UniProtKB/TrEMBL annotation:
Pfam families: PPR, PPR_2. InterPro entries: Mito_RNA_Proc_CCM1, PPR_rpt, TPR-like_helical_dom_sf. The keyword Repeat applies. PPR repeats lie at residues 199-233, 234-268, 269-303, 304-338, 339-373, 374-408, 409-443, 444-474, 479-513, 514-548, 551-585. PANTHER family: OS04G0488500 PROTEIN, PENTATRICOPEPTIDE REPEAT-CONTAINING PROTEIN PET309, MITOCHONDRIAL. This is Pentatricopeptide repeat-containing protein. Belongs to the PPR family. P subfamily.
Length: 671
């Protein structure tokens, strides 16, 4: 049934009610004043009327408004000079050509004169000329002038407005990232104008504005209303919504929308497939990501290096390096050449798994294919080789990097310094630091903290203190990390007095100790026999923010100190506090209590009942994973849990949801 004026108005009001929940407006606010809402500064979208290109900012004259009441004639010089800018005929076409020319050049003063003369001579105005001027206002960032011109088209120029001019103005507003203002303009015009009916481009712009404002659910609501307005969503509509959903981490709904999109006969571009694949990989849902790649092939959309790099990165995050490496062969079979990012991702993943030697082999294969590694790849390999005890190979890698002309940055230098310190060679590391400064590469907190740690571990705490004093006045260096390393090193070296001085200095400079600094200070106090002072610091931690909350290491330090003092009841109270703070005990916690129960009690106990009760307490708090880890400790110690305890834990692991989770995990492992 055709939509009459009454129906059209009714439908317009229906859509208006959706949008106006958060964006109400009046005539004056919608068309005369900028929105009071905070505008979001973002990049231009793909779904604009004009391609997004770098815009030259045009500085217009002081008076940019079109003063249409001014009847000053256009000088004859304009018409004499007009042929120099193009071929003009006498009549209306002459004026139209002038409008296009002056709009293109941003000459708004001359445009004002042309419009004034056209009004005086009663020339006919066409919508396409106003669209040209609206776009010129957009390039000059004069959004409100574009809105003002749209409102004058009918009353002052007797020019019929259609959805084309409306979309042009709406697009100009959105190009300036004034998304709330765009919705206000849409609401006013569609509700109050009876002869403008939105089309698919209108909806695309509105949906984009809503998504940019984070109102994705309302954008979906508008999307569902499109068929009512006889407007069929296109590929840009779907992709805009999928972008919005992905940014809110609602990947499942985005994938469902992709399925709906393909059923409706719209096929996304390679870029959109890659966005969804990336979202699934970040969630760890590699099985669905792989199915999406198969979907790409079925739709004739061939994956590119971005697709493969995204999958490889996801596999590396899950620790599936062998599968990530096998994807290299698949890339070549599909005539997709791996690039530096591909190889770099795999090398970094191998290093994180402690397989730096395998990473070095991949680097060799990379170079054989004609790719050159950058400083970040070398940094990962140098640091990784040192960590696995391959110091000679790491130094060869460093020398090779220098010979190939790859200039090391702060990250590479820091990796080398940290590696030498791990090898017990802080003096050589100090020489590298001097070279680093000499070539103009600025060390960071990680660089200095690694060197300090190296001197502490070789028993040279005085040299570590000299390093700290050297950086104490440097901006951004004397931070929490350096203080934490210094306090930990001094406490381990038995220099509690110096550690307390650093602690006070830390507070005087406004730094907040982190959990490592607190734990180190508590450990030093406990070693010195000041357990009560350690407990005071512990209570201070409980009152701090989450990044300074005590962890299992902090609890184990205090539990060990209390048990050594034969304060078993206080240790159990602290264990209760640990459970209340949702901090799970580990194997160290278990061993502390097992040693105490066996060596300090008379008669000694093997601790099986104590650990069995701990398992049940964790089970009652629904911390089944932690409970199962305690059972593993018991089995290693040949301590058998009670049959009832076994039954409770096994039943919890065998719940249907848990089984389904295990099955899903197996499928992911198979992929």
């Amino acid at each position: 049934m055709p939509i009459n004026k009454f129906n059209r108005k009714h439908l317009s009001v229906s859509l208006f009610s959706i949008l106006s929940k958060s964006h109400s407006c009046s005539y004056s606010s919608a068309l005369s004043k900028p929105s009071a809402n905070t505008e979001h500064e973002i990049q231009n979208s793909h779904f604009l009327i004009e391609p997004s290109v770098p815009r030259k900012i045009i500085k217009p004259p002081q008076d940019l408004g079109l003063n249409f009441q001014n009847d000053a004639p256009i000088p004859d010089k304009i018409f004499r000079d007009a042929p120099k800018s193009g071929s003009y005929r006498r009549g209306d076409s002459t004026f139209y050509s002038l409008i296009e020319n002056y709009a293109k050049s941003g000459d708004f003063t001359s445009l004002e004169m042309v419009f004034s003369r056209m009004k005086r001579e009663k020339r006919a105005f066409t919508e396409k000329n106003f669209i040209v001027v609206v776009r010129a206002y957009g390039k000059a960032h004069l959004t409100e002038k574009a809105v003002e011109l749209f409102t004058r088209m009918v009353d002052e120029f007797q020019c019929k407005r259609t959805v084309k001019s409306f979309n042009s103005v709406l697009n100009v507003i959105i190009q300036e990232a004034l998304y709330s203002r765009a919705l206000e303009f849409y609401n006013f015009v569609i509700v109050n104008t009876k002869n403008i009916f939105p089309n698919v481009l209108t909806f695309n712009l509105v949906i984009k504005a809503l998504c940019k404002l984070g109102l994705v659910d309302r954008a979906i609501h508008v999307f569902r209303e499109m068929p009512v307005f006889k407007s069929v969503p296109d590929v840009y509509t779907y992709c805009t919504l999928m972008d919005g959903l992905c940014k809110e981490d609602r990947i499942d709904k985005a994938v469902a929308l992709l399925d709906e999109m393909q059923i409706e006969g719209c096929f996304p571009s390679l870029v959109k497939f890659n966005i969804l694949i990336n979202g699934l990989c970040k969630k760890g849902d590699l099985a669905r990501a792989a199915k999406l790649v198969d979907n790409m092939f079925l739709k004739g959309c061939v994956p590119n290096e971005v697709t493969y790099n995204t999958l490889i990165h996801g596999l590396c995050l899950k620790g599936k390096l062998d599968k990530a490496t096998s994807l290299l062969d698949r890339m070549l079979l599909n005539k997709c050449i791996p690039n530096d990012v591909t190889y770099g991702t795999i090398i970094n993943g191998l290093v994180k798994q402690g397989r730096a030697v395998d990473g070095a082999r991949v680097l060799l294969a990379m170079e054989e294919k004609g790719h050159n590694a950058n400083e970040y790849v070398y940094s990962a390999l140098v640091g990784g080789l040192f960590k696995v005890g391959k110091s000679e190979q790491a130094l060869r890698m460093w020398k090779e990097m220098m010979e190939k002309g790859c200039k090391p940055n702060t990250v590479v230098y820091s990796s080398l310094i940290d590696g030498l310190c791990r090898e017990g060679k802080p003096n050589e590391a100090e020489e590298i630091l001097s070279e680093m400064i000499r070539v103009g590469c600025k060390p960071n907190a990680y660089t200095y903290s690694s060197l300090m740690k190296g001197f502490f571990e070789t028993g040279n705490s005085d040299k570590a203190l000299l390093v700290w004093k050297d950086i104490a006045e440097k901006d951004g260096m004397n931070n929490d990390v350096c203080h934490g390393v210094l306090i930990s090193g001094l406490c381990k070296d038995g220099k509690l007095k110096e550690a307390l001085m650093v602690w006070k200095h830390m507070y005087s400079k406004g730094y907040t100790p982190d959990v490592v600094a607190y734990s180190s200070m508590i450990h030093g106090l406990c070693i010195a026999g000041s357990v009560e002072h350690g407990l005071k610091l512990f209570n201070e931690m409980l009152c701090k923010e989450s990044d300074s909350k005590p962890d299992v290491v902090t609890y184990n330090i205090l539990l060990n100190a209390l048990c050594k003092q034969n304060s078993l009841s206080r240790a159990i109270d602290l264990l209760n506090n640990m459970l209340d703070q949702c901090c799970d005990p580990d194997s160290v916690t278990c061993n502390i209590f097992l040693s105490t129960l066996k060596g300090k009690l008379n008669p000694p106990q093997n601790g099986s009942e104590f650990l069995d009760e701990l398992v049940l307490r964790l089970y009652r708090r629904q911390r089944v994973t932690a409970a199962s880890q305690i059972i593993e400790v018991m089995l290693h110690k040949f301590l058998h849990p009670k049959a009832s305890t076994w039954e409770k834990i096994i039943r919890e692991f065998c719940k249907p949801k848990k089984i389904q989770t295990a099955i899903d995990k197996c499928w992911n492992e198979l992929f």
